[in-house]
């Protein structure tokens, strides 16, 4: 009942037909749905970004651990070469 009153008022104010007012209302609903869908997509993308950031943090930690191991190995290898050269 209220919708009919609002629609009638809109028709009177706009001076247009009920079909045109309905089409405009329908278009507004379509746009709202499109916005809602895009907001859902944005939320999913933001979640993916957060997951990638977490993975990057883990990989960064692994990189540091690996670099430390390589540096230690390299130092030990140099030390051993020097030791065998002197003996």
Q: What is the topological layout?
A:
Layout: H1 2-14, H2 18-86
Helix pairs in contact: 1-2
Overall outline: rod-shaped
Q: How far apart are the first and last residues' alpha carbons, in Å?
A: 103 Å
Helix and strand run? HH
Helix count, DSSP H or I runs of 4 or more residues: 2
Major sheet details: none
**Low-confidence spans:** 1-7
User: What is the residue-mean pLDDT, rounded to a whole number?
Assistant: 83
Q: What is the domain tally?
A: 1
Describe this structure in words.
By secondary structure, this protein is mainly α. The chain has one domain (2-86). 94% of the residues lie in helices and 0% in strands. The protein has two helices and no strands. The chain has helices spanning 2-14, 18-86. Helix 1 (2-14) crosses helix 2 (18-86). The longest helix is centred in the middle third of the chain and has 69 residues, at 18-86. Residues 1-7 have low confidence and may be disordered.
Brief summary:
This protein is mainly α and 87 residues long. Helix content is 94%, strand content 0%. It has 2 helices and no strands.
List keywords for this structure.
single chain; 87 residues; mainly alpha; 94% helix; disordered N terminus
């Amino acid at each position: 009942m209220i919708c009919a009153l609002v629609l009638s008022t809109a028709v009177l104010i706009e001076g247009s037909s009920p079909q045109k007012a309905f089409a405009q209302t329908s278009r507004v609903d379509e746009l709202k749905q499109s916005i809602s869908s895009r907001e859902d997509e944005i939320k999913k993308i933001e979640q993916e970004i957060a997951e990638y950031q977490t993975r990057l943090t883990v990989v960064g930690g692994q990189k540091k651990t690996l670099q430390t191991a390589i540096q230690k190995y390299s130092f030990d290898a140099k030390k051993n070469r020097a030791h065998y050269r002197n003996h």
